[in-house]
Structure formats: structure tokens, C-alpha cells
Amino acid sequence: MIRLGVIGLGRAFMLMLPTLVHDRRLRLTAACDPRPEALDRFRADFPGSRTHAAAEDLCADPEVDAVYVASPHQFHLAHLRAAAARGKHVLVEKPMALALEDCAAMVAAARGAGIHLLVGHSHSFDAPYLRTREMIRSGAFGAPRMITAMNFTDYLYRPRRPEELDTEQGGGAIFSQAPHQIEVVRLLAGRPARSIRAAASVWDPARGTEGAYQGFIDFGDGLSASLTYNGHAHLDTDEFQDWTGEMGLPRDPARYGEARLALRGVSSRAEEAALKNRRAYGLTLDAAEARRAPPPPAHNHFGLVIASLEGADLRPTPRGVMVYADGERRFEALPPPAVARAEVVDELFAAVVHGIPPLHSGEWGMATTELCLALLQSAREGREIALHHQPDDAAR
Length: 396
Hints:
Order of helices and strands: EHEHEHEHEHEHEHHEEEHHHEEEEHHE
CATH topology of the largest domain: Dihydrodipicolinate Reductase, domain 2
Oligomer: single chain
CATH class of the largest domain: Alpha Beta
Shape: globular
């Protein structure tokens, strides 16, 4: 069992909480957060756990084997260094950092301390994409030639804190949503990306950050990937997934337009932040809700994804993979998840307990950050951007 300490009890922690409370390979033993109410709630939810005012104190806690860094992006480097200095393995939220120099420093610190560094959760951990990757790597359908990824959501109109609407602070779709899509297509491509050409702009000045983008990634040797993301709360691509939501739960199409409607009565950024905080851990939410909830009936997903190979198109879905081959059309079902996002713990447990290097390593996370930064640069400068920090994932 891994004794896990958590730095940051915010939104990322809430999304992972069902996994953290249900997976028996983990035990939450410590937490650090600037909000006293969150720390009070954590001690109540996890009897025997300890809370700390500073990340350095949590990393020094002898009851912690590994640290989940779920703090805001700008603190990831410092918190990774604190954990590495104490020999603690680290799972850090995406994006791992907002600058390549910080990513490189994180990789170096982990390597120097002899710890494992994992970056996630992103949707490239999801079972349907992992199964599609296995099918591609089997060679049964020939070489991959084209990957298409498209997702339309209401992302930009969910309640946000001010920094979440500031691109320079890591806000907006490019740093929050693109890592998911980028990592899914990298997983399926199985080779280093060479360059990206992209378009993105601010459509809604009231939100002030990019809510949509398109990108074209060249992987070389005849393989490319197209990325389309639109978070402006109109079309929802869950419609093409039998109204199964991103977290594998059923969606109600009759609730169309709720995100925009909820913001109409908000008159300031402070009021919007307060609206978001109404469902923050330690105020109205606790671990009891996550413990009571059954596992989702389907797997997590990130919109419509199609891998086009020489002999077939493969379409991962929340419940399996659709195969469109030369002479047949069939569905390869996956069993529903026993624990949501357990694939994250699979990698963490393999690394910490068995010493198996993770796929979603620091080098992997640095490659994703490079692509996000290059996507933004390409959109702003109107040109193709060459990539230089892409590991060869084909051998993994």
C-alpha cells in the first residue's frame, strides 16, 4: 500500500477523490492546503491523517511514501523539489509546469533524487485509449496514418477564478484542456512529434482567454494528427458518445445551456470565484459523497477520437473500441471500471512498489508542455513551430 500525501485540496483533488478513496492500493495519510476549512475536513474524512501548513512539512512526514502535487501550476516546481529532497515519489497534475525550463528542472530534480515522477491525470490514462494503443501496436491493421481528435464542451463558461481566465497564468483551454488531447494523440501515435501548426484566439472578450483551438501535429513518416477543441458551450460532443460525459457518467441533453445560464447573474470575477467555491472541498463537499458514489458505468473519455490505420479506423468510446476494418465492423467491449481512473494508480503503484518506470514520466509531461507552448506560439505568430523535446514513446 502507498501512503499518499496531497499538496492542494482544490479541483484536481476533487476529480481524483473517487479514485483515492476507493483504490485499496492507496491510503491518504497527509494533506497541505492554505484553507483551514479544507484541512479540518480532511482530518475528519480520513481519521488518523495529519495536516500541514507548509508543503515542506508534508514532504518530511514519515507517514508519507509518495506525494500528489495538486497545487496551482506555478508551485509545481517548488513542491516537486521539496518532495525530491525527502526522497518521496511524486504524482504531479498536468500541466507539470508553464515553462520548459521548469519542466527540465523537475526532471533533473527527480533523477538526482532517484525518485519516480509521474504527470497526470490526463485522459491518456483512460482504458479505451490504452486499449486502442495496444491494437495499433499489434500491427494487425497496418501502420497508423492519421489521428483525429475533436471535443466540444462548455468548459469556458463553468465558474472560474480570475487566474483560470488568464492565459499567462496557465488559464484557458490551451493549458487546461489541450494537454488531454495532446497526450491522447501522442499515446496513439507512438512516436515523437516533429512540429505543430495551430490557430487559437479569444472569441469572448468577457472571458479574456482562449476557449478554442485547432492544431495540426506532424509526426513524420506519413503520420499526422488534427486537434479541434471548442469550449464555448454550444455543440457538445457527448452527443456522439450516447450522452456519456467525460467522467463516464450519463448526461441529460435536456440541460442544454445551463453553464451560460448560471453565469448570467454574476456581476464580477469575485462573485464568479465565490460561485465556484460553493462546491469546493471543505465547504460543501467531503469524502463521504465520493465513498457513497458507485463507480461510473463507463470509462472516462475526451470527446471524439479516431485513429486511422492502413487497414482500419479505430474509434475508442467510453465502453470500448469500435473497429471499422476492410471487411467488418465490430465493437470490442471493455468491462466497466471497478474504480474510476484506476489506471493512474496502476502506474503509480508499479513505479513506487515495483520500480517500473512510468509511461507518463517527467519527460512525457515536458513533451506535452512543449506542445502546449508551441500551439500558443504558432497561433500568435501564424507559423509552424518545430519541436525539440519529444521523447520516443514507441519503445515503451
